[in-house]
Amino acid sequence: MRTALLVVLIGSVRLLMGDGPQPDRWRGLIVGESTAADAVRVLGTPESDKPDRLFIRRIDKWFIPGLRAKSLRKQSFRDVEGFSRVDLYYYQERLAVIQLEPSKHLDPNALGNIYGVTFTPFVDRLAEAMFPRDFERNQGRIYPKRYPDEYSLVAVTERSVLAAEVRRMGFGSTLTGSLGMPDSSASFPGKVDGIQIISRALENREGSDLLK
Question: Which of 71, 74, 122, 141: disulfide with 51, CB 3.0–4.6 Å?
Answer without folding.
Answer: 71
